[in-house]
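Example 4.3 (complexes with small molecules)
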Amino acid sequence: MGTLQRERVALMVRRYKSIYDMKPSSYENAMDLRGNPTTVCPCGCVVWVLKVQFDSDSGDIAMYFLDMECAMCGTRATAPTPIDSMEV
Ligand SMILES: [Zn+2]
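Answer. The structure with zinc ion bound is encoded below.
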């Protein structure tokens, strides 16, 4: 984890007391960027809200929906998949 990313995580930890409070206070600046997979929101946040299913044996993430929402600003985007990082 780079220094900038650590600073962002530290900022988010200070800003939110509980994960249940980690949601946008307003969707006024939220965008709809669905279509191209991404890992970073234009607001700089790297934490996303997704719906996931866990493998009951290993506890690993078994499945996740591709629609996700930025935890800071509410922008909608498309989650990356392993095949997205492969070069063609
Ligand atoms: Zn955002």
